[in-house]
Amino acid sequence: MSDTGRVSSPTPIAPDDLTSTLTDWFAVHARPLPWRSEAAVRAAGRGRADFAWGVFLSEVMSQQTPVARVEPVWRAWLHAWPTPGELAVAPTADVLRAWDRLGYPRPALRLREAAGVIERDHDGRVPADEDALLALPGVGAYTAAAVAAFAYGRRSVVLDTNVRRVLGRVTAGIALPRPHLRREEWHAAADLVPTDPATAARWNAAVMEFGALVCTAVAPACDACPLRRRGACAWHASGAPPDSFRRRRQTWAGSDRQARGRIMALLRTHAELSGERLAELVGATQQPEPVGSARPTDIAQHERALASLVADGLVAEAGGAYRLPS
Fold first, then answer.
1. What CATH number did the domain enclosing 91 receive?
2. Residue 268's domain is classified under what CATH number?
């Protein structure tokens, strides 16, 4: 918005200028994340970890969890399993314990499955080709594109929430992207990816980092935005309109996801628990209600959460006792 209060029009920015603006910003402001450094990957993996393996682990782990929580777990995984072959034969219980609190633990088991395929079909090296990456268990379009770009410097279209938000604001003037990626959005993003592979990889990393640090979903730092200073952000120029898409809001407190998380946290620290003792300990981890009020234990939710964990192969049951699978 201009100083007179009128909505201004964005100044069109050429794709090359957009690329150079954000990659120049990235060169100064990029976080020193360990999976961006071959030396850091080797150090975390006791000198035996391949760079692409470190990148692959980081991308899978970061899909559900903020980077600050991912880093210590990533280091622990690389230390324990510096190669895909070592993860492929790791005991299930060890893998689930090492996943810690990175979200629902099913991706941990898919990671181990993928490691087995990498070991068997790719001589123990993470493939560089996106189609080969997509064939790995648990790997979707985003992960395949990200690994191709960040591990191998290939040209790919990396579209996570951060990238979609930045491009949506800058080029389309929308506060937040649509809940689901559409074909036309993918093609519009692909048109902005530089043709040179090395430049494309830097561009993908830069846009993602810019969305994480500056063009955030809530309270974006527009005063620090080099595109806004150039009048090149369509969203800011149109008065920063609010989100216009209806979204399904999911709350964590009281959800089945939270109930599953409590169960997994307890089984990571106990060799085995009876069903009765497990329910008792789960109840003890819940926040107490104010004095004088009663909070009935949601037995149905606890049983539903436990059953789903058993069905997913994340918890084993025998004789009324529960433990992590061996």
1. 1.10.340.30
2. 1.10.10
Q: Convert the pLDDT of each residue in 2-30 to its tens digit.
A: 344 444 556 678 999 999 999 999 999 99
Per the listing, tokens 């069903």 go with 275
Single-letter amino acid, residue 227: L
Dihedral sign from CA coordinates of 160, 163, 169, 172? negative
pTM equals 0.88
> Which of these, 8, 18, 111, lies nearest to 62 by C-alpha position?
111
Structure tokens at 239: 């008065």
Domain residue limits at 113 = 10-249
Instruction: State whether 106 and 123 are in the same domain.
Output: yes
Asked if residue 305 lies in contact with residue 260, where contact means CB atoms within 8 angstroms, the answer is: yes
**Is 280 a residue of the active site?**
no
Q: Which of 59, 119, 130, 209 is catalytic?
A: 59
Q: Are residues 181 and 90 located together in one domain of the fold?
A: yes
Are 98 and 223 found together in one domain?
yes
Distances from the Cα of 249 to the Cαs of 179, 245, 246, 252, in angstroms? Answer: 11, 12, 9, 10
The H or E element containing residue 280 is: helix 275-285
Which residue from 278, 313, 317 is spatially nearest to 104, judged by alpha carbons? Answer: 313
In a domain, 217, yes or no: yes
* Per-state percent for the chain, helix, strand, coil, to nearest 5: 55, 0, 40
* Residue 238 shares a structural domain with residue 306: no
Nearest 5°: phi and psi at 284? -70, -20
Segment (H or E) for 16 = helix 15-29
Token output for 1: 């918005």
Listed residue (121, 143, 124, 120) closest to 133, CA to CA? 143
Are 242 and 267 in a shared domain? no
Listed residue (189, 188, 107, 206) closest to 150, CA to CA: 206
pLDDT digits (tens, 9 = 90+) for 267-305: 999 999 999 999 989 888 765 444 443 344 578 889 999
